[in-house]
Amino acid sequence: MKLQIGIIGLGKFGLKLGKTLVDLGHEVLGVETNPDKVKNAQHVLTQVYQVDAMSREALEQIRIQDLHHVLVSVGDSIAASVMISMFLKELGVAKVWVKAIHQDHEKLLHKIGVDEVVIPEFMAAKQIASRIAMPGFLDYLPFDESMAVKEFTIKDWEGKTLLELNLTNTFGIQVIAVRRNGSKGYQYIPKANETFHEGDNFVAIGEVSQLDRVVP
């Protein structure tokens, strides 16, 4: 499904996010007051408006309320992000996401009813720490940080099948993909009779504590 997404604030984070969404096939409308940033974004995003997002009327005139999602990324101004978020909620935007600069800012945004708050620095730090401390770690699940996705390389399970290993009952994890040794692509939802060979990789989902127990 192609989404129509708005990004208010086209600094490094906002513009990078917008470009990624466009690359994924979605339509992205950018809103920015700085003319240089508007110019930089015009060849990247679907449409760019040079308007003041602190004006409720301006947001309404560009039909921001018709978009599926709007993300607010207005730098270090807490007051601006709160005001713009309130306008978006009042205008009936379906999903309002906001970039916060710290946890107190996050709490304030949740109190006014925004749908999602992201703190990029916290997210990046957590990802890096997890990858250092937990080799093979890919990502936490957004709805439950006790759950994660991790990739493993086969060594001791040479010749074993998923049915024999019975990983769901033994560890409480679910294998969601297999990548054969030397292959760049993954086989998703592997069959129970798939046989592992040394150097093969598999991706599993489960509780972090259970994933840590697996030594394949």
Automatic annotation (TrEMBL):
Top-level taxon of origin: Bacteria
SUPFAM superfamilies per record: NAD(P)-binding Rossmann-fold domains (SSF51735), TrkA C-terminal domain-like (SSF116726)
Alphabetized InterPro entries for the sequence: NAD(P)-bd_dom_sf (IPR036291), RCK_C (IPR006037), RCK_C_sf (IPR036721), RCK_N (IPR003148), Trk_Ktr_HKT_K-transport (IPR050721)
Domain RCK N-terminal: 2-119
GO biological process, any: potassium ion transport
Name this polypeptide is given: Trk system potassium uptake protein TrkA
Molecular function in Gene Ontology: monoatomic cation transmembrane transporter activity
Record-annotated RCK C-terminal domain positions: 138-216
